[in-house]
Design a protein that fits this description.
Family: Belongs to the ParD antitoxin family.
Number of domains: 1
Helix content: 55-70%
Oligomer: single chain
Radius of gyration: 22 Å
Pfam families: ParD_antitoxin (PF03693)
Organism: Roseibium salinum
Number of helices: 3
Largest sheet: none
Distance between the termini: 50 Å
Order of helices and strands: HHH
Shape: elongated
Mean pLDDT: 93
Structural class: mainly alpha
Protein name: Type II toxin-antitoxin system ParD family antitoxin
Keywords: Toxin-antitoxin system
Strand content: under 5%
Number of strands: 0
């Protein structure tokens, strides 16, 4: 097992120590291992979601629409979702 040293602001250190003292983790190392596992799981889920989106897109076939129509539909969907406006 490898060992690393990290530096963090006192406020963050107090948070980590509080999690340990509250019994959520046995020690500081367990807390950080849990953070790494959660980050790995989150990234793996994001990759799988992207793979699923790509598989659905590929399975949907070739669009009958031209690129300008597709782009306009994407802009409209983004507007409806409140996403930032693209740079034309």
């Amino acid at each position: 097992m490898s060992r690393i040293t990290i530096s963090m602001p006192d406020q963050m250190n107090e948070w980590v120590e509080a999690q340990v003292h509250a019994g959520r983790y046995g020690n500081v190392s367990e807390y950080f291992r849990d953070l790494v596992r959660r980050d790995q799981d989150r990234r793996e889920a994001a990759i799988q979601e992207l793979r699923d989106v790509l598989a659905r897109a590929e399975a949907s076939g070739i669009s009958e629409r031209a690129l300008p129509g597709i782009m306009e539909a994407a802009r409209e969907e983004a507007r409806q979702k409140g996403l930032p406006r693209d740079q034309d």
